[in-house]
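Hi all, long-time lurker, first post. I run a small reading group and we've been trying to get comfortable going from sequence to structure in the token notation. Rather than ask abstract questions, I figured I'd post a concrete chain and ask someone more experienced to write out its structure so we can walk through it together at our next meeting. Sequence below, copied exactly:
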Amino acid sequence: MNFNQTNIIITGGSSGIGKATAQLLASLGANLTIIARNQITLDQAQREIEAFKLSQNQKIFSLSADVSVREEAENAIAKAITLLGSVEILILSAGIAHPGYFQDLPLEIFEQTMAVNYWGSLYCIRAVLPTMIQQKQGKIVLISSGAGLIGIYGYTAYSPTKFALKGLAESLRAELKPWGIQVSIVYPPDTNTPQLITENKTKPPETKAITGTVKLWEPEKIAQEIIQGIQNSQFAIAPGLEMKLLNRFHSLLLPLLNQYFDRLIKNFKS
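-- Answer (accepted) --
Happy to help. Here is the structure in token form:
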């Protein structure tokens, strides 16, 4: 598809994968509204994204909202649609992660992670759907994780939220297809983002031993994979060989991966 003058909303667009995707889309001529919580970070991200614009006619907006709060998410989407005039693509990149041992994590961490990662995505989808149904076209892109395909030691607060997005995407795919709305879900591997830096502060050593076995991706490469997946109308966008194999064969690979992870953890503890 041609992204020139396409109207796109990106949650979590002020940093990491969301910002990298916004920059790439700006370079392809898209009109964008990025949504995130911190206005200072948003203002800086907007300036950086505007530097990638293909033409001066493009519109780049930023809105401050906490998507885990239903009213804020709904208001932000409504305002974004007003600013852009319509919306063809919604990319849901807002997310948080707080690794740790299950028994040590406060329940509030589990609740907050589900609120941002799952409910924040769901609220925004519900808010944008009437417009897309009226247009009889649209694309919705949910950002899950490799940890949304297999449960990973130390990610008991995070993995279930990304599994939930997988279930939501799979359910919505067929339901929205008659309206001309395409649903995609992305399974990024570990990516060099501010979020990962924050994760590493609380990540158990066993988790570091597991995640350290895979290549770290740059957000710009993930953004390229997302854009290519949208262009190819892919449902599952799995960057890299490991994620592609895991997406296709995770049920078959899981016993082997569990054995491998168990050996890593045992060796680490010993």
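A couple of things your group might point at:
The chain has a mean pLDDT of 94.
The two ends are 53 Å apart (CA to CA).
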